Amino acid sequence: MQQRSEIVGRIGATSYDVCVIGGGASGAGCALDAQLRGLKTVVVDAGDFGSATSSASTKLIHGGLRYLQQAMVEWDIGQYRVVRGALRERIFMLRNAPHLTGVLEFAVPCFSLIDAVYYSVGLKLYDWLAGKAVLRSSFFLGRTRALARFANLNGSGLFGAALYSDGQFDDSRYNLALIRSCSDAGGDVLNYAAVTGFTKDRHGRLATAEVEERQSGTHLSIRANAFLNATGPFSDRLREMASPGITPRLILSKGVHIVLPLPAGFGNDAVLIPKTEDGRVIFAIPWQGRLLVGTTDTEATLDEVPSVTRAEAEYLLRHLNRYLTPPSTRSAIVSAMAGVRPLVRSGKRSRTSKMVRDYEIEVEPRSGLISVLGGKWTVYRLMAEHAVDAVQRGLNGKITPSRTRNYALLGSESHTIEAAENLAAIHGIAPDIARHLVDKFGSCALRVLELVRADASLGARIVPGAPQIAAEVVYCVREEMAMGIEDILSRRLGLQSFDWRLAIEAASAVGNILARELGWPRTRTGEEIRLYVDRIRASSEALGIDLVHAGTTQ
Ligand SMILES: Cc1cc2nc3c(=O)[nH]c(=O)nc-3n(C[C@H](O)[C@H](O)[C@H](O)COP(=O)(O)OP(=O)(O)OC[C@H]3O[C@@H](n4cnc5c(N)ncnc54)[C@H](O)[C@@H]3O)c2cc1C
């Protein structure tokens, strides 16, 4: 990726075809699509790329069984359409970044013959809606075989389990792969750059986006022919900036996950808890050596940074413990995350959990702002395709075909276990480190190891027992625009979601490498480490979990 200072310098002096605002799934997808169509593109994000909703998802590439259930019960054609569209997109997401994705099998526990018939028929419909893009056909396992395969299912009253397949992915690294692929294709990308306002031409159309570059405090004016608002839950704020007084379109819904140690014998398959007290479903999913459990669905605002409360964790544990053994307790939680869904108002439905996860591309006729509203990760590519069609329609009316359906993302060349074994053998590194590097960086793992070849000390583990090494931090600063400790430990290396305690332990080492790479003075380094550790401690305290006093020395 290009140097940040060069990009900052260039942005103010360039006239772009498209300025994409927001670098989450929607914005990163739009920026890549636009750049690949030959449009001169810049994408800016107020925080780190993917730092809002796009790194707090359930990490499923799916049509959404819950939405299909709603479609069946309520004869809702809108829900069918959304599920079908997402199922067909699933295959592109899997194919374009195999190092960051995989196929998971899910068990839906059934406690009666009626349950078994209901879920088996529903899952056949799910297969059918996927058409040729079906991953593996669904099937039913009787009680004995279900318990043999899912050792942790609570056997009391169990009739059997219906099995189906969906995709799983590393959401924050997928987000980065989109951003880096856009940059590789010639687009300009900049994080920590917030749009604070617009200027307009004499016809009232947007002329520039006014941007505050938050690392240096520099003010930038971005000139572009089209402005694409892809700010997810913040979209109404940008719409208001462009057209004061405009009617809001979004309803926000908070969703949380807790992370638990993976129970012994859990295996590689996931469990779908089909009924909750509030008529939802909950997933228990093996995720990078842990069990990811979620999610919830409650109306939210943007007033505060979303966090997981004790009551939300207890809600998830209560349902989990009805279906899985041995029971888990709150004190076993090792990490947690919360995000805010941007849902488009449908007019009819009041409960967020009942709202269709559809999307809309809005073109505001006076200002010309194009907003990508709603949707979900799985359909980011399709939303981007439609949004960039709208951009081209507004520019000169000539729509060129999107190239993203079959566009391999950066790092996707090697991703197999053999690739990791080769890496371990050739570079003399431990197998767990090799596997971790291939999982996170794909073929770019070789670039990380080049740093180790130049300086052997960078091959050291950041914390004992975890596979993350110092070279990754250097690589993420130089090649992935990481600017802070959380950028590294949360979105790029995955240690924060794996274990808060380990993340606290790693904070000093990471802070010191960042200080060297970014030229932070000593006082700033200490402050950054302290702030990071305080944030993690506050998250754990909100859950009532006491983290040990892990190292905070420089
Ligand atoms: C709990 C939960 C679980 C989910 N699970 C799944 C799942 O398993 N599968 C699935 O397909 N979908 C899932 N989703 C939905 C999916 O995560 C979201 O639809 C998607 O991530 C939204 O992406 P986005 O880019 O629109 O928004 P965001 O990721 O929120 O990105 C918006 C970006 O805009 C930036 N921004 C805001 N204001 C400005 C400004 N003024 N200037 C510049 N930048 C700005 C923000 O910093 C942010 O990075 C889930 C959502 C939640 C909450």
Can you give keywords for this protein?
eight-stranded mixed beta sheet; about 550 residues; about 20% strand; single chain; binds flavin-adenine dinucleotide; alpha+beta
Show unreliable segments. 550-554
Beta-strand share of residues = 15-25%
The number of strands is: 18
Mean of residue pLDDT values: 93
Ligand inventory: flavin-adenine dinucleotide
The number of helices is: 18
State the end-to-end CA separation.
29 Å
Shape: globular
Indicate the percent of residues in helices. Answer: 40-55%
Structural class: alpha+beta
Q: What value does the Rg take, in angstroms?
A: 23 Å
Q: Biggest β-sheet: count, sense, barrel?
A: 10 strands, mixed
Structure notes:
By secondary structure, the chain is an alpha+beta fold. The chain has 18 helices and 18 strands. It has helices at 4-13, 25-36, 65-74, 77-96, 113-130, 143-149, 171-184, 235-242, 310-323, 380-395, 417-427, 431-441, 445-454, 470-480, 485-492, 495-498, 500-518, 522-542, and strands at 15-21, 41-44, 60-61, 101-110, 139-142, 160-169, 188-190, 193-200, 206-213, 218-229, 250-261, 270-273, 282-287, 290-294, 298-300, 335-344, 359-363, 370-374. The strands form two sheets. Strands 3, 4, 5, 6, 11, 12, 13, 14, 15 and 16 form a ten-stranded mixed β-sheet that branches. Strands 1, 2, 7, 8, 9, 10, 17 and 18 form an eight-stranded mixed β-sheet that branches. Helix 2 (25-36) packs across helix 10 and helix 17 (500-518) runs antiparallel to helix 18. The protein is globular and about 70 Å long. The two termini are 29 Å apart. Residues 550-554 have low confidence and may be disordered. The structure holds flavin-adenine dinucleotide (FAD). Flavin-adenine dinucleotide (FAD) is lined by residues 21-27, 44-47, 51-54, 56-60, 62, 194-195, 230-234, 238, 255, 295, 339-342, 375-378.
